[in-house]
Write a structure and sequence with these properties.
- The complex is a heterodimer of chains A (486) and B (343).
- Chain A is built from 15 helices and 20 strands.
- With 486 residues, chain A is an alpha/beta fold.
- In chain A, the strands form 5 sheets. Chain A has a 7-stranded mixed sheet, sandwiched between helices. Chain A has a 5-stranded parallel sheet with strand order 5-4-6-7-8, with helices on both faces. In chain A, strands 1-3-2 form a 3-stranded antiparallel sheet, with helices on one face.
- In chain A, strand 17 and strand 18 form a beta hairpin.
- Chain B is mostly helical.
- In chain B, the strands form 2 sheets. A two-stranded antiparallel ribbon of chain B has the order 1-2. A two-stranded antiparallel sheet of chain B has the order 3-4.
- In chain B, a hairpin with a 5-residue loop joins strand 1 and strand 2.
- Chain B is globular and about 75 Å long.
- Chain B starts with a helix and ends in a 14-residue tail after the last helix.
Chain lengths: 486, 343
């Protein structure tokens, strides 16, 4: 009896175990597959093998054992994009997904090539990755660590994804990064700003292109001292979770080093929607600056409440009261509307960077052109970092000549590149963190259109935001060694 | 003293929202006997009525401005609201500026309609089912409604500002003789409080001083006897469901400038509003209002830095803590009626 079917299906694997293979044709031994004369023993054997085969993750099955997890078979390679498709960051996740789709198009030689034209490394040629056409699967992180791990696990085990990327939360990034390390998969982090991602929770298989809380603090402090003076009293409202803590610590230490005093720091629940009860005491505290260590809906609501309570119109200690938002997001700024005007914060990248600051940030316009033409609006910084991470991964595989995670780690660690919109950038080997210029921005007073939300106050050079790998804000973790899995 | 006064003021506006939602909830429970977990979603839909009306007023046609460029370097497409063509730029902008208060007129019929469809289309089929079934179906409905809103409006908050005349804040402390700049209160929150007071007063007056209200109250007390008198009490209760939906919607409309509406805002209020209803006493309208303001003010006090220093995290549990204490000492809640939710 003969059955013919594609060699890479789960059914083929079952038959490989239960029969003999010859040129893609399996002959099933009768005791395993006797449909016409079923026996109790045959049925039990077949059932047991089938159950075991289905239960095993792809990377533990025989065809995954080629030295590393999910070695691509055939002429395609699968990437897994794990983004928030539901929950409060779904819009940011949708923008990330757009960028991933664009990156895959460009890698496969479709579209105008985007940043592949400006990227300093010329390894990518539009024929996929190592000649394999790139395809992708997506997962929904829901901005919940457990859900994100489950979706990443599914993409690794069921879909055979060889790399996982995306996300819009540090909690998710840390959780998924740890999973990828265990599974022997490369994790190219999306939007994650907590120090811990490349600090105490860093992993050899994980890489972060996005900047972090320390860099925001280091970039912001001199500008804040310059704009508002060195004699200021700050009041921090901090989202009560990991990212909030590291951001507060970073901004506090940077501003205190320049002479600012921290009057109080109050943690606010992540689920809070009305911050009036937290903002009202700010007025009576004697503070003249309010630092909102909030992101997403928290940031929109706390900033809106602070403006409603007239903080910005007040004069305290003889100085005009100011509000600072350490991490800016274009999508969130849109939610805050006119309240964002004049508020200083920091960004990883902005779509107008090359137009405003010239060729150092080459690649920006190429990406904006591709993205804008395809989708009708400019990309967010979340989209940018996800697009760049995909290209960087593909480039590292191509330069390494292998999808083996350890070869990729070797190619990416210490890699210096340019032409991806941020100027000259280093993927530091010690912690797999990218070091590049950081933007200090201010909400635009008179926007010309709905996308023209921020003006760039200054670009802080990479050297000024670079720190030692053993800096106290990043201590406590170990990169470990790469895990190829399988 | 001024810090205490400030937190009382803060609690009043939050309490107003709790009271309005809880009033609708307890009205539905008292009339139809249904525990409506979709009530928070009605509050959210009300806020999105303001967003929709605002967008309708700003409905535009495109004019290409050759002198300006868009982000791709093409001539800029400028959106010109039709209302400018109809009334001129100044009047048109003034109408758009007042979109939120004007949207009340749009919200009332929409919310009554939604309430009517909800009650006739779904909830009436669950009148004789256990409360657990009612909770499941209305909670499911709430999730469906918020996903529908997310599909059309996205997940991000949508700024819906108050009219410019109410955008600022005033020095309430100085008015009372305190030091200047110590008790600052936004105008719109005061408007919200006053609005809530008017709505609550109107609902009470409607139930107390109209024949319709009298029949509804009689039906709440003894539905069967009212039915035996030849009065179609079901029809009146359906109308009450519509009114409760409109109250939740109006609470949402006026809340839109306080916090930019997002699809999840109903859920944020729902659980707290249920606690308010339970603390106030199931089925008691004055209890719901009293508990709404009480818990709103307590929540504000618990968020003060000085309180948090002594008891960290108290701001997140205060409402539930108070609910436990009240239910232990007064099992029917503050103003609960005998026989409601009791076998």
């Amino acid at each position: 009896m003969e059955f013919r079917f594609p060699v890479d299906t789960a059914f083929a694997h079952l038959c490989r175990t239960a029969g003999e293979e010859s040129a893609g044709v399996f002959t099933i031994r009768e005791e395993f597959m006797s449909f016409s004369n079923p026996t109790r023993r045959g049925l039990i054997k077949t059932g047991a093998i089938a159950s075991a085969s289905i239960a095993l993750p792809t990377y533990l099955r025989a065809d995954g054992h080629t030295g590393f997890t999910n070695a691509p078979q055939g002429d395609t390679v699968t990437l897994g994009f794990n983004v928030p498709q539901s929950g409060p960051y779904a819009d940011e996740g949708a923008d990330e997904l757009r960028a991933f789709e664009l990156a895959v198009e460009h890698l496969n030689g479709e579209g105008d090539g985007g940043m592949m034209q400006t990227f300093s490394s010329k390894a990518l040629d539009g024929t996929g990755i190592l000649g394999k056409k790139v395809q992708f699967v997506t997962g929904d992180t829901q901005t919940k660590s457990d859900a994100a791990r489950a979706s990443a696990k599914s993409m690794i085990e069921k879909d055979g994804a060889v790399m996982i990327s995306g996300g819009s939360s540090s909690g998710v990034a840390v959780a998924v990064q740890a999973l990828c390390q265990e599974a022997g998969i490369i994790f190219m982090a999306g939007l994650t700003h907590s120090n811990d991602t490349t600090g105490k929770d860093k992993r050899a298989n994980g890489f972060r292109h996005f900047f972090n809380s320390y860099m925001s603090g280091a970039a912001l402090a001199p500008i804040l001292a310059n704009e508002y003076g060195a004699d200021r009293k700050a009041y921090h409202l901090t989202a009560d979770y990991n990212w909030g803590y590291t951001t507060e610590e970073a901004v506090r230490s940077s501003t205190e080093a320049l002479g600012w005093e921290t009057v109080n720091a109050v943690k606010t629940p992540l689920t809070a929607t009305d911050f009036s009860a937290y903002i009202a005491p700010v007025i009576q505290s004697g503070a003249d600056v309010l630092v909102l260590n909030h992101y997403g809906g928290n940031m929109v609501n706390s900033l809106t409440n602070a403006v409603q309570f007239g903080l910005r119109g007040q004069t305290v200690n003889g100085k005009k009261f100011e509000i600072v938002v350490p991490l800016y997001s274009e999508l969130m700024a849109r939610g805050a509307g006119a309240n964002i005007k004049g508020i200083i914060g920091s960004q990883n990248w902005d779509w107008s960077l090359e137009d405003k600051l010239g060729a150092r940030y080459t690649g920006t316009n190429a990406f904006v052109q591709s993205f804008g033409t395809k989708y009708g609006f400019p990309p967010s910084q979340a989209a940018h970092t996800c697009y760049v991470q995909t290209l960087l991964y593909a480039d590292a595989v191509t330069r390494a000549g292998s999808f083996n995670p350890c070869a990729v780690v070797e190619a990416l660690a210490g890699f210096e590149f340019d032409g991806l919109g941020n100027g000259p950038t280093l993927y530091r080997a010690d912690d797999h963190q990218c070091f590049k210029d950081v933007l200090v921005v201010k909400g635009k007073e008179n926007p010309e259109n709905q996308y023209d939300l921020v003006e760039i106050v200054e670009v802080t050079p990479a050297e000024q935001v670079t720190y030692a790998p053993d800096h106290p804000q990043f201590s406590g973790g170990s990169l470990g060694t790469c895990n190829p899995g399988a | 003293m001024d810090a205490i006064l400030l937190q009382i003021l803060n609690g009043l506006d939050k309490g107003s929202a709790y009271a309005l939602i809880a009033l609708g909830l307890t009205l539905i429970f008292g009339t139809l006997g249904v525990v409506n977990f979709a009530h928070g979603a009605l509050f959210m839909i009300g806020a999105f009525c303001a967003v929709t009306f605002s967008k309708m007023l700003s409905f535009s046609h495109i004019v290409v401005d050759e002198t300006k460029k868009d982000f791709l370097g093409n001539p800029l497409k400028v959106e010109v609201p039709y209302i400018h063509d109809l009334f001129g730029v100044t009047t048109g902008d003034a109408i758009i500026d007042w979109a939120v208060p004007l949207s009340i007129l749009f919200t009332i019929p929409v919310m009554i309609g939604i309430g009517f469809i909800m009650e006739r289309g779904l909830i009436k089929h669950f009148y004789h089912r256990p409360h657990a079934d009612q909770i499941l179906v209305t909670f499911g409905l709430a999730i469906v409604l918020q996903e529908v809103i997310k599909y059309f409006y996205g997940a991000n908050p949508i700024p819906t500002p108050a009219p410019a005349a109410f955008a600022g804040s005033f020095d309430f402390g100085a008015m009372l003789g305190f030091e200047a700049n110590n008790i600052i209160y936004p105008y719109w929150r005061l408007v919200y409080f006053a609005f809530a007071a008017v709505i609550i007063g109107a609902v009470f007056a409607f139930l107390q001083f109209t024949t319709f209200g009298m029949v509804v109250r009689a039906g709440m007390a003894d539905r069967e006897t009212v039915g035996l008198l030849g009065i179609d009490i079901d029809k009146r209760f359906t109308i009450m469901f519509g009114i409760a939906a409109a109250v939740a919607g109006l609470a949402g409309v006026m809340y839109a400038p306080i916090n930019s509406p997002n699809y999840h805002m109903g859920m944020d209020f729902l659980v707290l509003s249920f606690v308010v209803v339970v603390v106030g006493g199931m089925g008691s309208l004055p209890g719901a209002v009293l508990a709404g303001f009480l818990l709103g003010i307590l929540e504000s006090f618990a968020s003060m830095a000085v309180v948090l220093e002594f008891i960290p995290g108290i701001n997140q549990i205060i409402i539930y803590l108070v609910a436990i204490i009240i239910l232990l000492t007064r099992p029917r809640g503050l103003m609960g009626r005998k026989g409601v939710m009791e076998d």
